[in-house]
């Protein structure tokens, strides 16, 4: 054997030895993992058997398993959960669009059951429930340690039935009770108005159902000569991802809108804008607050990253994870977090939220002496019209007032909302810069 042959043979032998060691290590690792799984399963089996045999109450085996699964899901994150037969049916009722309840969206924040937002014109909204309120008790029962699904099930019920929730609110010295009468919850997802004395289109999106993009398109097409658009996403808890993506696409003509990344690479998706879907280049302002979550944060954060809109208001809720319903069988399922959303810049929404470009806390617009007199004068005018209507309920003046109030954001309403007033002023500045 010559020197070259011997050297080549040594290299082959060395390679085979390395491969053999690698394969053995792989097998050893696989065996260790399998052994660890068997030990863990053995521990679970022993625990279940011990509970079944010694627990003070007689619990059926299926109930023990259900509790074990529920505990597992609850400890993964605040949004994953086990849907037993009742919870699964309740979820299907909720997604149908009509159900008896209070009209609030809740989530877990810092392990506390927190109101993400009240839905407009629902019992909770009328009772004064606010985004950020912590629900301490439901009908006297503590919510500490409860899951979102358990809390929602307790709050949902037949219309016209009462419920009392105990609220802890920032700025209040102690918790207080709020009595609410449940009702059938029907939500109008989009409505559009013009700002009085301003050629600005105001579009309010209360939640992202399947009709959002269609209705927003209609509103924009009906007002092609508007000087700008104010998109109000305050207290919008989210909804359908495709509606959020397509809404951004109406204002952005290229680039990533949002990306979704999970442990399973098959869940990794990039949603991109298309120039063919772009509908408006008008100056745009988006209003957000602590009740803006999920899809609302995708819309506001994406428009912010694309520098397509000025975001005004308060920091958003911070829910940027993706949940899917995975059936176990025909009657039960898992709600499981499978991925997180990332904005075009690569930043995450989860537990962070979207920080506005202009931070404005809610409140009334400060008034000078002259403007205060103007408001008092308009209030007197409204009062006189009201008195006139008592004499002649069908007067044309009253009809016009009602029509105007339905289709227009009045100056009085603007003066009561400093966030909206800031948005109007910002549109004016953006319009000047655009010229």
Automatic annotation (TrEMBL):
PROSITE patterns: PDZ
Family from the record: Belongs to the peptidase S41A family.
Record-linked InterPro entries: ClpP/crotonase-like_dom_sf, PDZ, PDZ_sf, Peptidase_S41A, Tail-specific_protease
Matching NCBIfam families: prc
Organism per entry: Campylobacter concisus
Ranges annotated as spanning the membrane: none
Any Pfam family the entry gives: Peptidase_S41
Domain PDZ: 90-156
UniProt-recorded name of the protein: Carboxyl-terminal protease
GO cellular component: outer membrane-bounded periplasmic space
